[in-house]
Amino acid sequence: MFQVIGGRGVQVTRLLAPGRAVLVEAVRGRKSRTDTVAKSKQGRIKVPPPVDPTEMVVLKERYAEYEMITRALRLEFKEEVLRKKYEEETGSMAEEHRALMVFNDQENLRMLQQRVVRIQMEKEEAENKQVEAAIERELQQQEFIKEKEREILKLQEDAKNFITLENLDQRIEEALDSPKNYNFAVDKEGRVVKQTMLQ
Amino acid sequence: MVHLSSLLLKNYHGGYVVIRLALAGHKQANRPFYRIVAAYNKRARDGKYIEQLGTYDPLPNIYNEKLVSFNFDRIKYWIGCGAHPTKPISKLLGLAGFFPLHPMTITEAERQRAQTEPIAAGPGDDLQQGQKEAEP
């Protein structure tokens, strides 16, 4: 009828506050847009039915409870219908079904136990691995430190033979005094000959 | 008469099943008699239904009783399949005890009691009536 109150639904609980007494829209009933309004309905203003607020509050509560209960009932009936259909299908095989379910449960239990044991073993292995890895890392670190120390010592020893500003002249003199011969000869068979004609 | 409606049910797009009252027997004027029926929503009120689930006689008999009958098993089945009961059916089922009491039943009874009280107690309870009329 009205475009506001359309379709099925709880029409009573729709209007709580009876604020508006005048409806803006006109109604398209039996007559079309161009038909004249009847003489008896010339100045008629359609008004929604009056609503008592206290009664409305009480009604809303009652409807909420009612709908909750009916919804629960509907779900119960649905479940019952499904169960009946299911039992119809598995009625002849009920005993087999039960035996299979029991077997399934036992299998699940066995698998569970196996799984638990396996997980325990794996956990222990992982822990051992971790401990070993930590030890390895420690050892590596120690090795590294020792390596570095050896290098340092080597460097310290080499430092004694370095050429410094004070040694410069002395070393030049030494180098000039001792000539080194880098010439050598190689045979086709690979025999090296270091002794050559010194100039 | 054997209804073959279960074999010849038409497929409705977006249609659903309702449990509602259908007038039976148009042969007598001013003597209504309803059948409580599970039918598709789009069907005519008195048209082909899926299954009859009971009766309702709105006129009281010589013992001042209105007789109603329900097939609760089938009603449970249809509601479980997703049928919608209409308002009068919900009210009847509420009065029968199968559903909870419909709120409007209680409200109508309260309103009637409020109306009959002033007549019994005299013109002193006009407050309630005045309150109802003052709310437009």
From TrEMBL, chain A:
InterPro entries: Ribosomal_mS26 (IPR026140). This is Small ribosomal subunit protein mS26. Belongs to the mitochondrion-specific ribosomal protein mS26 family. One of its GO terms (cellular component) is mitochondrial small ribosomal subunit. The lineage of its organism: Eukaryota, Metazoa, Chordata, Craniata, Vertebrata. Keywords: Coiled coil, Mitochondrion, Ribonucleoprotein, Ribosomal protein, Transit peptide. It is found in: Mitochondrion. Residues 109-165 form a coiled coil.
UniProtKB/TrEMBL annotation, chain B:
The keyword Mitochondrion applies. One of its GO terms (cellular component) is mitochondrial small ribosomal subunit. Its main location: mitochondrion. Gene3D superfamilies: 3.30.1320.10. One of its GO terms (molecular function) is structural constituent of ribosome. GO terms for biological process: mitochondrial translation. It holds the Pfam family Ribosomal_S16. Residues 110-136 are annotated as: Disordered. Keywords: Mitochondrion, Ribonucleoprotein, Ribosomal protein. The keyword Transmembrane helix does not apply. It is found in: Mitochondrion. It comes from the Eukaryota. InterPro entries: Ribosomal_bS16, Ribosomal_bS16_dom_sf. HAMAP family: Ribosomal_bS16. Belongs to the bacterial ribosomal protein bS16 family. This is Small ribosomal subunit protein bS16m. It comes from Gasterosteus aculeatus aculeatus (three-spined stickleback). The lineage of its organism: Eukaryota, Metazoa, Chordata, Craniata, Vertebrata.
